[in-house]
Amino acid sequence: MHLIFRAAGAVLLACVLGGAIHGSGGADATPVAEAALYQSGVATWYGPGFEGRTTACGQIYRSSDYTAASNTLPCGSVVTVTNLDSGAAVTVTITDRGAFQPPIIVDLSLAAFNTIGYMDHGVIPVSVTQ
Fold first, then answer.
1. d(CA 18, CA 93)
2. Which end of the chain is more exposed for a tag (fewer CB within 10 A), N or C?
3. Is the pLDDT of residue 31 over 70?
4. Which of 58, 49, 51, 126 is nearest to 97 (CA)?
5. For residue 47, which of 91, 93, 109 has the smallest C-alpha distance?
């Protein structure tokens, strides 16, 4: 529900700013839009058994890198994963395919997961934005 209100607020803000900016008679400017929401769901982490192996995107997996696995985002995408409980966020690059168990939408590297969550939680509610 929070995301619906957030998205509605961004649309309203863009409409208000757009009208004010384009009606000024000066050069047209585009209002800065809020980050695009790709999806929300649950994040987990992966690493044991994958360290040093080649990912589906052709890179070497390192648990200390800020990377993630996704089944829906293109390889090389840079996204922000935000913990919906704490507001903590981390920027990661999609380097692998994964998150095969719904409602998990993204598998984070160990370093990325530790930045926004605690290992004892195992999974955390997140949003994924560009």
1. 32
2. N
3. no
4. 58
5. 109
